[in-house]
Design a protein that fits this description.
two-stranded antiparallel sheet; about 450 residues; about 5% strand
Length: about 450
């Protein structure tokens, strides 16, 4: 078919070149945003007297008909068209005749695609934010239910000090809360309308760019027409933010995989989120967690690809920028899918509370509290550290926990120990004595949970 730009050319584009240049195979997902932007553009043209009210009516009715037919499956977006803009305009002209040829007055495909991408990205940021909120709600529920579920806290993947499952889940709540804040920041920074920038130097038509921006829910128009059509910063920011989301999901997945192992047995993943082995009947594999961990690299790759694509591009628009779409689309689809699946897996996961507490005891996570006990009884910390080190070595040799030692055994190593050592090193006391804000103690956790509930409640206002 004839191209929108064909007047300058005397021979048809080579088919291979045409296919290589075309973007319809992936930018067809823009159809709703392209039509939404076109309706706003036509409304502005009529307001400015560039189109008549009757022309506006015909064009908008035609555009809404195209949108309806695509949504209902009556009109297929095929590779007969070079891009989504060509598809919409060609079908509009077919339906309403020459009036449809006025749709493109005062704009270029450069500012048109910039608008479509911003509208699409805005919509997707809203969806990503909703998925993050759902994950936060699951995390908050687990926090509220597990303020007294004791488990080991780790450093270097070695048991360090006792915490609660609520405290552990709270760490991820903070991570994903920051991810939501990044989404909000990106949305606010990108929310300026590029339509009206033209190819790169604006237009001689008396456009009202403020009005178009208002119709489309932007905070205002972009202030430089060259930057308007060549800005991809917001996509790089979004890919970076999604990479951070995926990094958080991957860290969490790694812990789920470890906790699911035979050695730990901290969790049991629901059958709906596991698979078996084709040869080993005893296996129950944490496939969803492993796939989330694996797909993180895919999103990282999209970020590095777009950064590399953009690094050598002069102003203003260059065709290289078409490479942004497939990368961003795939990264968004991947991140959304991973968030939804991980949330479902976490929501249905069962925690082995007794196993977690026993693991904390046998990991000597209360050793620091034993040292604090000695310090509180007048022993210098450095000496207390050495005494508790000997206690741990003794327990390892006997294959027992600090809680299992008799008072006589304690006193053989240091006469300072009294009967109250057992209270001092109990999991409950070890955790609940830590009540500065942000610590795992129940009183501290309840304050944090109240703050997180208030944070989520703000969305509903």
């Amino acid at each position: 078919m004839a191209q929108l730009w064909g007047g300058r050319f005397t021979k048809e584009t080579d088919k291979l070149v045409y296919n290589f240049n075309a973007s319809i195979s992936f930018d067809k997902r823009f159809y709703e945003q392209d039509i939404r932007g076109s309706i706003a553009h036509v409304s502005m043209l009529a307001k400015q007297g560039i189109l008549t009210e009757e022309e506006k009516r015909q064009i908008i009715e035609g555009l809404e008909g195209i949108r309806r037919d695509v949504e209902n499956g009556l009109l297929e977006i095929t590779d007969e068209y070079e891009d989504i803009h060509s598809f919409v305009e060609a079908n509009l002209i077919d339906r309403i005749g020459d009036v449809g040829k006025k749709l493109h007055t005062g704009r270029s495909r450069n500012d048109q695609v910039a608008l479509d991408m911003k509208l699409y990205t805005r919509d997707e940021i809203t969806e990503l934010d909703g998925l993050l909120r759902e994950l936060l709600e699951v995390l908050l529920k687990l926090m509220k239910e597990n303020t007294e579920t004791f488990m080991p806290g780790f450093t270097h993947l070695q048991k360090a000090q006792p915490i609660t499952l609520a405290h552990h889940m709270g760490a991820y709540f903070e991570m994903f809360k920051r991810d939501r804040q990044r989404m909000k920041d990106i949305y606010q920074r990108m929310n300026l309308c590029p339509l009206g920038a033209g190819a790169l130097a604006g237009t001689t038509y008396p456009l009202d760019r403020d009005y178009t921006a208002q119709l489309l829910g932007f905070d205002g128009p972009t202030l430089n027409s060259m930057d308007s059509v060549s800005d991809r910063d917001y996509l790089i920011e979004l890919l970076s933010a999604m990479s951070t989301i995926m990094m958080h999901l991957s860290r969490f997945s790694e812990e789920v995989i470890i906790w699911n192992s035979n050695e730990y047995q901290f969790v049991e993943i629901d059958d709906a989120y596991s698979t078996g082995s084709s040869i080993m009947p005893q296996k129950k594999n944490p496939d969803i967690a492993e796939l989330v961990r694996g797909k993180t690299g895919r999103v990282y790759g999209a970020l590095m690809s777009l950064l590399t694509t953009m690094k050598g591009i002069p102003l203003a628009y260059n065709k290289d920028m078409q490479e942004d779409k497939e990368l961003v689309f795939d990264a968004i689809d991947t991140t959304k899918g991973c968030l939804a699946l991980f949330t479902g897996m976490l929501q249905t996961m069962k925690f082995n509370e007794a196993r977690m507490e026993e693991s904390a005891k046998h990991g000597f996570t209360n050793a620091t509290d034993a040292a604090d006990y000695l310090v509180n009884h007048g022993v210098p910390f450095r000496d207390a550290h050495g005494i508790v080190g000997r206690l741990v070595l003794y327990c390892i040799e006997k294959n027992i926990a600090l809680d299992d030692m008799t008072l006589e055994e304690y006193r053989e190593i240091s006469p300072v120990f009294e009967e109250d050592i057992y209270s001092a090193i109990s999991m409950k006391n070890c955790v609940e004595m830590r009540n500065t804000i942000g610590a795992p103690g129940k009183a501290a956790m309840e304050k944090v949970i109240a703050a997180e509930e208030a944070y989520l409640a703000e969305d509903c206002k």
